[in-house]
UniProtKB/TrEMBL annotation:
PANTHER family: ALDEHYDE OXIDASE 1-RELATED (PTHR11908:SF132), XANTHINE DEHYDROGENASE (PTHR11908). Pfam families: Ald_Xan_dh_C, MoCoBD_1, MoCoBD_2. GO terms for molecular function: anaerobic carbon-monoxide dehydrogenase activity; copper ion binding; iron ion binding; molybdenum ion binding. Residues 25-134 form the Aldehyde oxidase/xanthine dehydrogenase a/b hammerhead domain. It comes from Thermoflavimicrobium dichotomicum. Keywords: Molybdenum, Oxidoreductase. Its cofactor is Mo-molybdopterin cytosine dinucleotide. This is Carbon-monoxide dehydrogenase large subunit.
């Protein structure tokens, strides 16, 4: 039962979501809902080839077509020095192709017309002559010496993008040399896509009379987008206003700047009219930032009883044609070095090599704190392989290796300082709640009858909240976040934050934090995000960073206001400030029972009855630079049954016990967990973006790239432990991505566990029924 929004002390309570009335009634306002007078529409012409030289582009017929106002090609952009834009990963990316195309569906020309249909029709009239070139889709082949060089713009004549490593090579190798047990596994995390319900899109509205560009864009990071746009276009930053209206899902997809955005801005600048560009579903999946695509080899050195010693990971990261990963600057492979996970490895060596192929660019953090999902999947998968090799139950193996609660703050061998955790407690709760012992007994009975039932565990650690500005920046912009709170005379609050939610419920949860700190109700607090003209500067919402960063800013900003409020309260109570006591709801005077004032009384006084010499008003701004990241964790358990005839896997039960420190709103956290588990389930069982040898994308829409419906989705059971972050102002850690990070391994571990009697040690995702059926058939289980 949700708490009413008018109640006081709302932190930690299930306050009903303030944003839902408008979403449930279909009254959200997304970019495509915005209609401006005189608006034009843009459509992008895309390459049918994955690798081809462009011999000529003839736009003359398209320019004559009805309603067409402008056609833009790469050559036009070259003349404006806008043919290439920087990516967030220190690479550069073509806006509209010049010279050659590097992946199928690459943007080649933009047509702007009075209607969208006219733009689409005219696009068919653009005549482009291509000369096909050899295609490389396999990143291992791309590294071979005779592979065609894809990126002719680079000085380095190879398809190798970067090498990155963390950990101590010599110490790790020493432990491997002497280890009694070594397990090794090749594990692929396939190419997937965030595929938000609302695809990418924008309206660029340049007003020639004021010189101001208003850019409505479905963005997770409006401030950063404005800065990048200013740097790329040369427009003064204060003359750009980015408005990110309601965002229909982001999941990392709406962090990068895409070619369509730049083309729409150029078109509006040239035409002096608003230009709208909205992607189709296929455009979204085939050309905007994909996620994962990591080919990982993992080795664990251990004692005979399964106690781990060292970890060695080598990864080939397929970045497609441009390295457009959304990673902080110093981390070309994101935070992948968290791969030692929840376990007390003595040493580790993690290496990643980025590679170019003829595929769409990306490497975005799909509901993931920059490659943490790949890391968690890998370690949780291979810990199970180790458990089987040494003959120890996977739950017991984990317990033997956990970083113990008294070891926090824990310094990992790859350099992270984990803030807090209690892994044993979380796993113990999960095992008890799921009835692990009973399930293992049931499994033994079923195995004896030739049935295939599996139990999969994942006890992952996350790293979220980028970040401390000493280590984290994106394109040089330090990663902090911000809040600005103003209490108006009647005690009502408008608070603006530098992040931008996409359905996570910030309008409720940030109101809860602020209301808690100020003795108000959530109903008293209006949260606004997403307008760069109004909100304080911040790096945006992705990587579960909002609560660790902007959540901290909101609390500290409110406390800053409370400090001033205390002075005003002293004036109203006619006592010294040192005699004023705050009890969470009102200020009272020590030794004067019955004499108290609320924040509303104080707010009114801030505009009407101030102490002598005090600045009027009651507002503050806070830029919060967190001292460290936060490290949420969880224990997930999946129980599956396999149909011997079809290979279909039924997820009978799934329990997620999460620990995200102090919980702001349990209902919203549960909702985050449900959503993330559904995505994790889809990744484990349904989703992949494969390519044929010619670079044709074989899953360019929701017919081939499957999205789970309510019918496919299992029932989720959730629970929680609470280990507050010692450095966060309210002890909260992020949670939004934990279920996506932690669940794939639980699903796969369960399926592999079911098939273990056949000697199966690993199956790459997605586990389609046919893969399981093939295994059953190879082992003579089915015909
Ligand atoms: O950055 P993003 O909002 O995607 O992720 P988050 O910080 O993990 O927050 C997701 C949602 O869960 C927000 O509404 C948070 O305020 C809420 N949350 C919470 O209620 N308690 C926590 N400890 C963490 C997040």
């Amino acid at each position: 039962m949700a708490l009413h929004q008018t109640e006081l002390r709302p932190l930690g309570k299930c306050v009903g979501r303030k944003e839902d009335p408008r979403f449930i009634r279909g009254k959200g306002r997304y970019v495509d809902d915005i209609m401006l007078p005189g608006m034009l529409y843009m459509y992008l012409v895309r390459s049918p080839y994955a690798h081809a030289r462009i011999k000529s582009i003839d736009t003359s017929a398209a320019l004559q077509a009805p309603g067409v106002k402008l056609v833009i090609t790469g050559e036009d952009l070259e003349a404006m020095n806008l043919a290439w834009i920087p990516t967030m990963a220190n690479d550069q990316q073509m806006v509209l192709a010049t010279g050659k195309v590097l992946y199928q569906y690459q943007e080649v020309a933009a047509v702007i017309a009075e209607t969208r249909e006219q733009a689409v029709d005219a696009a068919q009239l653009i005549d482009i002559e291509y000369e096909p070139l050899p295609v490389v889709v396999d990143p291992f082949k791309a590294l071979e010496p005779d592979a065609p060089i894809l990126r002719e713009d680079r000085e380095k004549k190879s398809n190798h993008v970067f090498h990155w490593e963390a950990g101590d090579r010599e110490a790790t190798e020493e432990l491997f040399r002497n280890a009694p047990v070594v397990v090794k596994k090749d594990v692929r995390f396939q190419r997937v896509h965030p595929a938000p319900l609302e695809p990418c899109g924008c309206i660029a509205d340049y007003n020639p009379s004021t010189g101001k560009l208003t850019w409505y864009v479905t963005s997770q990071a409006p401030h950063a987008h404005r800065t990048v746009l200013a740097m790329v276009s040369g427009l003064p930053e204060h003359q750009i206003r980015v408005i990110s209206p309601d965002v229909g899902g982001g999941f990392g997809n709406k962090v990068p700047i895409y070619p369509g955005y730049v083309a729409a801005v150029v078109a509006s600048l040239k035409l002096g009219k608003p230009v709208k560009w909205i992607e189709t579903r296929t455009e979204n999946i085939t050309s905007t930032g994909f996620a994962r695509d990591y080919h990982m080899t993992c080795e664990i050195a251990a004692e005979e009883d399964g106690r781990v010693l060292a970890l060695r990971v080598k990864t080939i990261a397929d970045h497609g044609a441009f390295d457009a990963a959304a990673d902080p600057s110093k981390f070309p492979a994101g935070l992948f070095s968290i791969v030692t996970g929840s376990y007390d490895f003595k040493e580790a060596l993690v290496e990643v090599d980025g590679v170019y192929t003829n595929k769409a660019p990306g490497g975005v953090a799909y509901r993931c704190s920059f490659r943490v999902t790949e890391a968690a999947y890998l370690i949780e998968r291979v810990m199970d392989v180790l458990a089987r090799r040494v003959g120890v139950d996977p739950a017991e193996l984990r317990k033997r290796n956990f970083i113990r609660k008294e070891q926090f703050p824990y310094k990992s061998p790859t350099g992270w300082t984990y803030d807090s955790g209690d892994y044993e407690k979380t796993l113990a709760l999960a095992l008890e709640k799921i009835g692990y012992e009973e399930l293992r007994k049931e499994q033994a009975e079923k195995r004896a009858r030739g049935e295939f039932m599996g139990i999969g565990i994942s006890t992952f650690t996350e790293v979220v909240g980028a970040g401390p500005s000493h280590t984290f920046d994106i394109m040089g912009i330090k990663m902090f976040d911000s809040a600005q709170i103003r209490i108006h005379p009647t005690g009502k609050v408008i608070a603006r934050l530098g992040v931008r939610h996409q359905g996570q419920g910030h309008e409720t949860t940030f109101a809860q934090i602020i209301a808690e700190e100020l003795g108000l109700s959530t109903d008293d607090v209006l949260i606004e995000e997403g307008d760069t003209d109004n909100a304080p500067y911040g790096l945006g919402t992705y990587a579960s960073r909002s609560t660790p960063t902007a959540g901290g800013a909101a609390a500290l900003c409110a406390r800053r206001i409370r400090d001033k409020a205390k002075k005003i309260a002293a004036h109203l109570l006619e006592v010294g400030e040192e005699d004023v006591v705050w009890d969470g709801v009102s200020f009272s005077a020590k030794g004067l029972p019955g004499k108290s004032v609320t924040m509303k009384d104080v707010a009114f006084a801030a505009y009407t009855n101030l102490p002598e010499g005090m600045e009027p008003g009651l507002e503050a701004t806070y830029y919060y630079d967190p001292p460290n990241l936060t490290f949420p964790h969880g224990a997930y358990i999946a129980v599956v049954d396999i149909d011997k005839g079809t290979g279909a896997v039924k997820v009978r039960r799934f329990l997620a016990v999460d620990d995200c420190g102090t919980v702001i709103n349990p209902m919203i956290v549960d909702g985050q967990v449900h959503g993330g588990l559904t995505e994790g389930f889809a990744i484990a069982f349904m989703q992949d973006i494969p390519f044929d040898d010619e670079g044709n994308c074989l899953a360019p829409n929701w017919m081939d790239y499957l999205v789970p419906t309510a019918l496919d989705t299992p029932h989720w059971e959730t629970d929680r432990t609470v280990t507050p972050s010692p450095h966060h102002p309210i002890g909260a850690k992020g949670v939004g991505e934990s279920p996506n990070v932690g669940s794939p391994a639980a699903f796969v571990n369960a399926v592999v566990d079911a098939l273990a009697p056949l000697g199966v040690e690993h199956i790459d995702m997605p586990i389609f029924p046919w893969k399981v059926w093939q295994i059953l058939r190879e082992h003579g289980v089915t015909e």
